[in-house]
Predict the 3D structure of the following.
Amino acid sequence: MKILITGANGAVGSDLVNFFSKNNKVIALYRTSNFISSKFRNKNIKWLKQDLRKKISHKINPKILIHCVVAHPFSKKSNYLNYLESNIIALKNVIEFAKRQKIEKFFYLSSIKIYGDVQSKIQKDYNVFVNPDILGATKILAEKMLELQKFNYLNIRLPGVLCYKINDFRRPWLNYVINRLRKNKFVNIYNSSGLFNNVIDTFEIFRLINYLGKKKKIKNGSLNFAARKPIKIKKMIFNLKRKLSSKSKIVFKKEKSKHFILSTKKTIDDYRFRTADTSTIINRYIDKYKSL
């Protein structure tokens, strides 16, 4: 497959470039150079500089498109204009390119932030959106833009994503906890008796797109993409502490915060794909994390 990945030198994009380029030709678009686009090279990767706020000018003809570009609260610039430019205008230009080039499949990395104030203990793909923040609101509009297209697409709604080439210790929540455990700092934990599966890693995103990309056609739509088999938060924290040989003090707070798990039923029922379970994803990440 020839695959175009936008935001290719970002946290998620750089991992996908790495995974896909092992057996595919990858066209990697980026706006601003960093150590990934400058140093990461192999014969299957073609790096191209492109400001997606403008029409895509490069003459390329990929079969699969993976759109990773996003403005979020941890972006260097996260004012309302940046959300509009990165989450809406950039997508508009990528959609226009996809139509011109007759892309076979378009994979859009969305977010569970679209749900806003979650009202359910188990968040399903069809639950309503309640008071989403600006990230969630722009993701809702982006999904609606794709629903109007005639090409094959899938909106992949992501929870916290664990990444390998670029590691931001501030996010997602689980990575923040792991980093504090590694540094032997105290950790406050809420909802310790609750279940947790609000996580995925970039390898699972790669597995899904690689699997669906080889099919003749996929069902257009949106799905929550999270780990299977939720685990107890308290058990997860103690396992992490043990695996990291941490001396951190764990404080299990009595106060409750809003808490939910994600349903993965649609991923299995509609796309015949089973994500790895929560423990497997976390253990895989920890094995890599120890070497960082």
The two ends are 31 Å apart (CA to CA). The CA atoms of residues 147 and 221 lie 8 Å apart. DSSP finds nine helices and 15 strands in the chain.
